[in-house]
Design brief:
Helix content: 25-40%
Low-confidence stretches: 271-279
Largest sheet: 7 strands, mixed
Distance between the termini: 42 Å
Radius of gyration: 18 Å
Mean pLDDT: 94
Shape: globular
Amino acid sequence: MKPRVVTIIQARTGSSRLPNKVLLPLGGRTVLERMLERVRAARHAGTIVVATTSDAADDVLAALCRQIGAHCFRGHATDLLDRHYRAALAWQAEAVVKIPSDCPLIDPAVIDRVIGEYLEHAGTCDYVSNLHPASFPDGNDVEVMSRTALATAWREAHRDFEREHTTPFLWDQPQRFRLRNVSIDLPGNYAMSHRYTLDYAEDYALIRAVFDALHPRHPLFGVADILHLLEERPDLRRLNQRYLGVNWYRHHLDALHTIRPADTRLPDDPGKKYEPVTR
């Protein structure tokens, strides 16, 4: 029997690098609304829940969810593992999908591929993602886990980064948990050369430009459409070039067993001359 799938989108207004980023405008709506459109287009996403914090500052997100008819859960501000686990319990999830709200251009087909991989192997795997190793452009993060595996992490994970980032307790222990990965169907690795996740103002400039270029003729444009556009428009790729490959791994390389230094990097000097990244 197909497990009950619940997709949890973690969201908050208190981003230190780009405050209120999920409320920024994108094609006449908010970033969060545009992202929900794309997640809802995935056939396997199941019940979709926005998981925000119980802080008063995020009342606006709860109000937005009510306005647009989206499920909303409110939980711990910094313990994302606890927030995901309690949201999974509240919606009686059997398979838990984790997608961060900083992926407003995520491809619904990618979501379906990762969830489909989990469903195909349900009962014989604990965790599936497209991140270990990563090959898709940054901004297509999808992780799926059984609620049992999530509960184990919730009980046993104790380090701060394990609680803040929800899943490293699972994917960083391949000897203990049954893991699978989905890779892009194109030659090469785009994870360190293409970025449309939303963390910085420069990311927003790129995301808005891509959305405005592609959405009018194809509202659910995908990875291939974006890669084609960026090949034609190197000026767009330059917008957030200095943040390519920048992720949270860089802060915990000494503690993570399965992440290499080549899987992360620091932001470039903003004055550094741009050099095109070729595939």
